[in-house]
Amino acid sequence: RAGRPSGWKLSVGATNDPQGDESRVKALKPGIELSGGATTGKWRYVSQRAPIKAGQVLRLAFEAQVRGLKQHKGQFANCYVGVSFFSAGGQRLGQQVIQVWRPRWTPDLIHARAPKGAAIAEVGIFLSMGGSLQVREVSLRAREPGESYAVLSEELSRYYSDGSHKELKPEDLLAQHAAAAKSADAAAFAKA
């Protein structure tokens, strides 16, 4: 279908008015844009699947921005990028999403552990309200057990980045403890 980026699947993710227009999907260079307006009633969901193993920790990274978001009467307030987990038989086992609301390109990421019985991960992009959602630089990869400190560092740097009130710089603190974290001695890390 027109607008579908290579390798991605289009489906209807929600319907709030069966007589309404379909949301628009446009391939960008690079990326994708989903958009709709006051008369949109059928909202497209853009997805791509990959085989995974239960228990794996996955890292979904992307950049996104929005334009002119407005929830019109009867519309659902969804504007997200996320990862869902399915069994080999197609049963949904879990989902983790990040709502996107920033009007400028912003990098974001999700770390999620595949639940018991998961065999498929599905990256999904969805908008069900007026305005547009643009997404680019989407990547999904498995994190190895030895990367747990890197995951911790990445999360702390993203979500606890303002230590200025205590003259604390997360990157300095993380670097100070990196050697102990990478050692096989849990007690050494705890003391660090």
Counting DSSP H or I runs of 4 or more residues, the number of helices is 3
Largest sheet: 6 strands, mixed
Number of strand segments: 11
Helical fraction equals 10-25%
Shape: globular
Q: How far apart lie the N and C ends?
A: 55 Å
Structural class: alpha+beta
Task: Provide the low-confidence segments as ranges.
Answer: none
Beta-strand percentage?
over 45%
Order of helices and strands: EEEEEEEEEEEHHH
Average residue pLDDT: 86
Cα gyration radius (Å): 19 Å
Report on the structure:
This protein is of the alpha+beta class and 192 residues long. It contains three helices and eleven strands, in the order E-E-E-E-E-E-E-E-E-E-E-H-H-H. The strands form two sheets. Strands 1, 2, 5, 7, 8 and 10 form a six-stranded mixed β-sheet that branches. The protein has a five-stranded antiparallel β-sheet with strand order 3-4-11-6-9, with no helix packed on it. A hairpin with a 5-residue loop joins strand 7 (79-86) and strand 8 (92-99). Helix 1 (148-159) packs antiparallel against helix 2.
